[in-house]
Write a structure and sequence with these properties.
The complex is a heterodimer of chains A (244) and B (204). Chain A is of the alpha+beta class and 244 residues long. In chain A, 30% of the residues lie in helices and 23% in strands. The radius of gyration of chain A is 24 Å and the shape is elongated.
Chain lengths: 244, 204
């Protein structure tokens, strides 16, 4: 096809190639998108060239994905499917919390946890913290998803306790709070007493109260204030662990 | 409807799922069907890994990118819209975006080195010959079409798409006026398009 510029060609057609290749500068990108809204010629050119760019991955020399990759991905997917399916048909409905009012806005493990079912666990954690306060702390990176995909997530584990630390995290929404879930090798994912919100700067932290023995993944969902017994929304944070 | 029946069935055997098209599998993935997702993963993991590896030049980084991308596919399966392209294109688009984001966290110097070495490194992979034998015709066509482009057009396309460079970075790297780089990108893509269309017409 020969390249032709007639008097009627939009001068910004020259940006179309760089646009579909993702090579426009940030400031140009916003302008070009705005321009395309009102320019059918540019929209058509971009659609044509995009179809070529969509084929470029096929030009890459073939490689076999490592077998461990599939296993790792599927382990995450299956535990998340379990969590979502555990929510069942009520997944879209807010769950009335069975937890007491004083647990709201818990940032760290508090009295509320003990007041529900976690007294024994609390004592165990406190004993562990007291007895090994100089142990090694491991930092495990997590991943933000969906609205929280730009969040920085890490789980600090050591000295018999674990703490989830987040930054650049969006707020959980009006009347909602973030809740931590623990996924074990078997059985349905378990809700925890760990509820947290974030500061206006997007940072927050929460203790994961039940310890992480046998836990293969820590997940976070946004729930109605007071927390839920079953997740009502998809996870926004996932921290994969090597189950101990 | 087929999808409704499949969704109601408690167990979808893998064999049954394998007979479904990607787009049908994605309907099940949107309903949190991990088995359906596994088939999608099986079909596209090699292409996803190869693309990430071509862009990043490191197997460990490519693995991380492929993993993040497939988890994104799983988690946002409900947002897949078949009107906007195939599952493969959508998935590889996610891989490309993430790989380029990862690349852009490196210095320009490091990115240029990776971009220059990309092809040579993959040529050294031991399984290359075997893989090349099963490579499909489309891949050969695309590579052939790229190979036939004037080198200055191919270079700017590769630097942008696989190197993650902006047109201004490319212009300063090659000592070429900014407008020229944009022009070469567009011309090169137009040529590729007509070449691929020509082959498509011949093969039908």
């Amino acid at each position: 096809m020969s390249h032709r510029e007639s008097d009627f060609d939009c001068p910004q057609l020259s940006d179309a190639g760089a646009y579909v290749l993702g090579a426009l500068e940030e400031n140009e990108l916003a302008h070009y998108r705005e321009h395309m809204d009102g320019c059918a010629q540019c929209r058509a050119e971009v659609a044509e060239l995009q179809s070529v760019v969509d084929e470029l991955p096929m030009s890459v020399p073939p490689e076999s994905a490592p077998a461990a990759l599939r296993a790792r991905i599927l382990a995450n997917v299956r535990s998340e499917a379990e969590l979502l399916n555990a929510a069942g048909h009520t997944a879209d409905e807010p769950v009335k919390s069975a937890r007491p009012w004083y647990r709201r806005n818990d940032f760290v493990l508090g009295v509320g946890a003990a007041a529900t079912a976690g007294l024994a666990a609390l004592i165990a954690v406190l004993i562990a913290v007291g007895s090994s306060s100089h142990g090694k702390v491991t930092v495990i990176p997590g991943q933000g998803m969906g609205a929280a995909r730009t969040a920085d997530v890490s789980l600090k584990q050591g000295n018999g306790r674990a703490e989830l630390v987040v930054a650049h995290m969006p707020p959980p929404g009006l009347g909602r709070i973030y809740e931590v879930w623990l996924v074990h090798e078997t059985g349905a994912p378990r809700p925890t007493n760990s509820l947290f919100s974030v500061t206006s700067g997007g940072s927050g932290e929460v203790d994961v109260p039940n310890g992480l023995h046998g836990v293969k993944e820590v997940l976070v969902t946004s729930e109605p204030e007071g927390g839920s017994q079953h997740p009502t929304r998809p996870p926004v944070i996932a921290v994969p662990l090597t189950a101990s | 409807m087929l999808m409704a029946l499949l969704r109601r069935s408690s167990v979808n055997s893998k064999d049954k799922l394998r007979k479904l098209a990607d787009e049908e599998l994605m309907e099940l993935v949107a309903g949190n069907d991990a088995d359906a997702f596994e088939i999608v993963l099986e079909r596209h993991e090699d292409a996803a890994f190869a693309l990430a590896y071509r862009i990043c030049g490191k197997r460990s980084v490519a693995e991380d990118i492929a993993q993040e991308s497939f988890l994104a596919v799983w988690r946002s399966g409900a947002r897949y819209d078949r009107k906007r392209g195939s599952v493969r294109t959508w998935t590889l688009g996610i891989v490309h975006n993430r790989a380029v984001d990862a690349l852009r966290r490196n210095s320009v110097h490091e990115r240029r080195r990776l971009s220059d070495e990309g092809i040579e490194e993959t040529l050294e992979a031991p399984e290359r010959t075997e893989l090349q034998a099963v490579e499909n015709a489309t891949s050969r066509e695309i590579r052939g079409a790229l190979g036939e482009l004037p080198s200055e057009q191919r270079r700017v396309i590769e630097l942008a798409y696989f190197g993650g460079f902006t047109h201004m970075e490319i212009a300063s790297m090659l000592g070429t006026p900014v407008g020229t780089v944009k022009g070469r990108m567009r011309l090169g893509l137009q040529k590729l398009r007509s070449q691929l269309q020509g082959w498509e017409a011949l093969s039908t």
